[in-house]
Specification:
Layout (H helix, E strand, L loop, with lengths): L1 H21 E2 L8 E2 L3 H5 L2 H14 L10 H9 L15 H12 L1 E11 L5 E6 L2 E3 L3 E3 L3 E3 L2 E11 H6 L2 E8 L2 E8 L6
Antiparallel strand pairs: 1-2, 3-8, 4-5, 4-9, 6-8, 7-8, 9-10
Helix pairs in contact: 1-3
Protein backbone atom coordinates (compact mmCIF):
# COMPACT_ATOMS: atom_id res chain seq x y z
CA UNK A 1 0.00 0.00 0.00
CA UNK A 2 2.85 2.37 0.87
CA UNK A 3 4.54 1.59 -2.47
CA UNK A 4 1.30 2.38 -4.32
CA UNK A 5 0.92 5.71 -2.50
CA UNK A 6 4.55 6.57 -3.21
CA UNK A 7 4.11 5.78 -6.92
CA UNK A 8 0.98 7.95 -7.10
CA UNK A 9 2.79 10.78 -5.34
CA UNK A 10 5.74 10.49 -7.77
CA UNK A 11 3.37 10.59 -10.76
CA UNK A 12 1.61 13.63 -9.31
CA UNK A 13 4.97 15.38 -8.87
CA UNK A 14 5.97 14.56 -12.46
CA UNK A 15 2.65 15.90 -13.79
CA UNK A 16 3.12 19.07 -11.73
CA UNK A 17 6.58 19.59 -13.27
CA UNK A 18 5.24 18.92 -16.78
CA UNK A 19 2.54 21.54 -16.18
CA UNK A 20 5.07 24.04 -14.80
CA UNK A 21 7.69 23.60 -17.55
CA UNK A 22 5.63 22.91 -20.68
CA UNK A 23 2.24 24.62 -20.29
CA UNK A 24 1.16 28.20 -19.84
CA UNK A 25 -1.97 30.15 -19.20
CA UNK A 26 -4.38 30.55 -16.37
CA UNK A 27 -5.74 27.67 -14.38
CA UNK A 28 -9.31 28.50 -15.42
CA UNK A 29 -11.82 25.79 -16.30
CA UNK A 30 -10.56 25.70 -19.90
CA UNK A 31 -7.04 24.68 -18.91
CA UNK A 32 -3.59 25.60 -20.17
CA UNK A 33 -2.02 25.48 -23.63
CA UNK A 34 1.35 23.93 -24.47
CA UNK A 35 4.21 26.42 -24.35
CA UNK A 36 5.42 27.40 -27.82
CA UNK A 37 9.14 26.66 -27.52
CA UNK A 38 11.16 25.15 -30.37
CA UNK A 39 14.07 24.33 -28.05
CA UNK A 40 11.87 22.17 -25.84
CA UNK A 41 10.30 20.61 -28.93
CA UNK A 42 13.74 19.86 -30.45
CA UNK A 43 14.84 18.19 -27.22
CA UNK A 44 11.72 15.95 -27.23
CA UNK A 45 10.42 17.32 -23.91
CA UNK A 46 6.84 17.20 -25.18
CA UNK A 47 7.24 13.63 -26.41
CA UNK A 48 8.65 12.56 -23.06
CA UNK A 49 5.84 14.40 -21.26
CA UNK A 50 3.29 12.57 -23.43
CA UNK A 51 4.89 9.23 -22.54
CA UNK A 52 4.82 10.06 -18.81
CA UNK A 53 1.17 11.14 -19.04
CA UNK A 54 0.24 7.99 -20.99
CA UNK A 55 2.01 5.76 -18.45
CA UNK A 56 0.30 7.53 -15.57
CA UNK A 57 -3.12 7.11 -17.18
CA UNK A 58 -2.50 3.47 -18.12
CA UNK A 59 -1.48 2.66 -14.55
CA UNK A 60 -4.55 4.35 -13.07
CA UNK A 61 -2.54 7.32 -11.86
CA UNK A 62 -3.57 10.95 -11.73
CA UNK A 63 -4.98 12.54 -14.88
CA UNK A 64 -3.45 15.68 -16.41
CA UNK A 65 -6.38 17.97 -15.59
CA UNK A 66 -4.40 21.17 -16.26
CA UNK A 67 -4.46 21.21 -20.08
CA UNK A 68 -6.99 22.37 -22.65
CA UNK A 69 -9.43 19.77 -23.94
CA UNK A 70 -8.05 19.91 -27.51
CA UNK A 71 -4.56 19.17 -26.22
CA UNK A 72 -5.74 16.24 -24.10
CA UNK A 73 -7.66 14.81 -27.09
CA UNK A 74 -4.58 15.13 -29.28
CA UNK A 75 -2.41 13.35 -26.70
CA UNK A 76 -4.97 10.54 -26.46
CA UNK A 77 -5.60 10.10 -30.19
CA UNK A 78 -2.59 11.59 -32.01
CA UNK A 79 -5.07 12.75 -34.65
CA UNK A 80 -4.62 16.48 -35.30
CA UNK A 81 -7.24 16.52 -38.09
CA UNK A 82 -10.14 15.84 -35.73
CA UNK A 83 -9.12 18.44 -33.15
CA UNK A 84 -11.31 21.53 -33.10
CA UNK A 85 -9.47 24.43 -31.49
CA UNK A 86 -10.91 27.94 -31.42
CA UNK A 87 -9.24 31.35 -31.28
CA UNK A 88 -9.86 31.36 -27.53
CA UNK A 89 -7.55 28.34 -27.30
CA UNK A 90 -4.62 30.37 -28.66
CA UNK A 91 -2.68 32.11 -25.90
CA UNK A 92 0.25 33.34 -28.02
CA UNK A 93 -0.49 37.02 -28.73
CA UNK A 94 1.22 37.19 -32.16
CA UNK A 95 -0.41 33.99 -33.39
CA UNK A 96 -3.78 35.12 -32.04
CA UNK A 97 -3.47 38.43 -33.92
CA UNK A 98 -2.62 36.58 -37.15
CA UNK A 99 -5.67 34.33 -36.75
CA UNK A 100 -7.85 37.38 -36.17
CA UNK A 101 -6.45 39.08 -39.28
CA UNK A 102 -7.21 36.00 -41.37
CA UNK A 103 -10.73 35.75 -40.02
CA UNK A 104 -11.25 39.47 -40.65
CA UNK A 105 -10.09 39.13 -44.23
CA UNK A 106 -6.34 39.74 -44.48
CA UNK A 107 -2.94 38.18 -43.88
CA UNK A 108 0.49 39.75 -43.57
CA UNK A 109 3.91 38.46 -44.56
CA UNK A 110 7.06 40.07 -43.20
CA UNK A 111 10.50 40.23 -44.80
CA UNK A 112 13.33 41.32 -42.46
CA UNK A 113 16.73 42.45 -43.69
CA UNK A 114 19.50 43.03 -41.19
CA UNK A 115 23.26 43.44 -40.98
CA UNK A 116 23.90 44.30 -44.62
CA UNK A 117 26.26 46.81 -46.16
CA UNK A 118 26.46 49.00 -48.17
CA UNK A 119 23.18 50.89 -48.00
CA UNK A 120 20.67 50.52 -50.83
CA UNK A 121 18.74 47.25 -50.46
CA UNK A 122 15.46 47.26 -52.39
CA UNK A 123 12.53 44.94 -51.65
CA UNK A 124 9.79 43.73 -53.99
CA UNK A 125 7.04 41.13 -53.60
CA UNK A 126 5.48 38.56 -55.94
CA UNK A 127 2.52 36.24 -55.53
CA UNK A 128 2.61 33.21 -57.83
CA UNK A 129 5.19 35.00 -59.99
CA UNK A 130 3.25 38.26 -60.44
CA UNK A 131 4.64 41.43 -58.88
CA UNK A 132 2.45 42.96 -56.17
CA UNK A 133 2.61 46.65 -55.22
CA UNK A 134 -0.68 47.06 -53.34
CA UNK A 135 -0.45 46.37 -49.61
CA UNK A 136 3.35 46.72 -49.47
CA UNK A 137 4.88 48.79 -46.67
CA UNK A 138 8.69 49.00 -46.62
CA UNK A 139 10.52 50.81 -43.84
CA UNK A 140 13.36 53.25 -44.32
CA UNK A 141 16.84 51.82 -43.97
CA UNK A 142 18.30 52.15 -40.49
CA UNK A 143 22.04 52.28 -39.87
CA UNK A 144 23.86 50.99 -36.80
CA UNK A 145 27.65 50.63 -36.65
CA UNK A 146 27.97 50.72 -40.43
CA UNK A 147 25.39 47.95 -40.98
CA UNK A 148 21.87 48.48 -42.28
CA UNK A 149 18.45 46.97 -41.69
CA UNK A 150 14.91 47.40 -42.97
CA UNK A 151 11.64 45.52 -43.09
CA UNK A 152 8.90 45.07 -45.65
CA UNK A 153 5.36 43.87 -44.97
CA UNK A 154 2.96 42.53 -47.58
CA UNK A 155 -0.67 42.65 -46.43
CA UNK A 156 -2.94 40.45 -48.55
CA UNK A 157 -6.68 40.22 -48.81
CA UNK A 158 -8.13 36.96 -47.55
CA UNK A 159 -9.03 36.08 -51.16
CA UNK A 160 -5.49 36.59 -52.49
CA UNK A 161 -4.02 34.70 -49.53
CA UNK A 162 -6.34 31.74 -50.09
CA UNK A 163 -5.78 31.68 -53.89
CA UNK A 164 -2.01 32.16 -53.71
CA UNK A 165 0.49 29.33 -53.36
CA UNK A 166 3.90 30.96 -53.72
CA UNK A 167 4.79 34.23 -52.00
CA UNK A 168 8.24 35.77 -52.61
CA UNK A 169 10.15 38.63 -51.10
CA UNK A 170 12.95 39.61 -53.48
CA UNK A 171 15.83 41.65 -52.11
CA UNK A 172 18.00 43.46 -54.65
CA UNK A 173 21.29 44.57 -53.16
CA UNK A 174 24.77 45.26 -54.45
CA UNK A 175 23.91 44.12 -58.03
CA UNK A 176 22.50 40.78 -56.82
CA UNK A 177 18.96 39.43 -56.30
CA UNK A 178 18.11 37.38 -53.23
CA UNK A 179 14.60 35.89 -53.40
CA UNK A 180 13.03 34.26 -50.35
CA UNK A 181 9.99 32.14 -51.21
CA UNK A 182 7.25 30.76 -48.99
CA UNK A 183 5.00 27.99 -50.36
CA UNK A 184 1.80 27.26 -48.44
CA UNK A 185 1.81 23.62 -49.55
CA UNK A 186 5.04 23.07 -47.62
CA UNK A 187 3.23 23.94 -44.41
CA UNK A 188 0.05 21.95 -44.96
CA UNK A 189 -0.28 18.33 -43.87
Amino acid sequence: MADEESATETKSEMLAEIEKKLFLGSTDKKGKNPLYCLNRLDHNYFRTAGEVIAASMAQGGPLPNFMREWCFRYLCSGDSDSIQASTTDVTDLELSQLIMKLSEGSASLLCLLSGYSPQGALVSWTVDGSQVNTGVLTSAEEEKSGRYSRSSTLTLSKDLWEKGEEFSCKVSHNNANHPVTFRKSQCEG
